[in-house]
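Appendix B, example 12.
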Amino acid sequence: MTRMTLITTGAFLAFAGPLHAGGPTLIGPDPVPEAMPAAASGVDWSGPYAGLSYSRTSGYMDMAGFGLFDYTDGRATGGFLGYNLQRGKLVYGGELSFANVSGMVFRDVSLGGDDPVDSLLELRGRVGYSLGSALIYGAFGLAKGNYTLNGVDKPTASGTSLGVGMDYKLTDQVFVGLDYTRRKMDGTNPNPGLPFTFDAPVNSLSLRLGLSF
């Protein structure tokens, strides 16, 4: 009995050893995957901004009773400031700009003297669509132009403006832009001795450099 017990025990241990060494491995629950980082949010165009602009300008003056005169192509340097609000991809807001104009002149032989456009002032609303770093927009607003006539008179003209453009962010704060605007303006010569009405549209293609705050 004792010998048989030893043999049986040895056989069991010999059989159980391999089972233990290569036996089934307990499998725990699958590891929980780490949370994926949140997707980077789109570029935020909201908030105030300001900048400088350089423009190429063109236009004409149509003076009642004196005829139509084309201005020479000129240039304008100025600044702008505005505020954007963003809702999803929609970006909208307002902008105020001012520019000094030079080289935009015609010579009025009938009145005498060189007649330039002196400056432009504009207040407009913008509505755009964000493509991330790029903002495409349309604009509509009110415009005012200051002129010189016959070398002496200083009339003003006012009207509406319509524009399209694109801003592109180089960094979170710095952006560049290209803007094309048409202004339809009219006014009256203030000289009581030579009163007449006139139309004086001004178009501009502007390169802009701005800073968002």
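The chain has one domain: 47-212. Residues 1-16, 35-40 have pLDDT under 50 and may be disordered.
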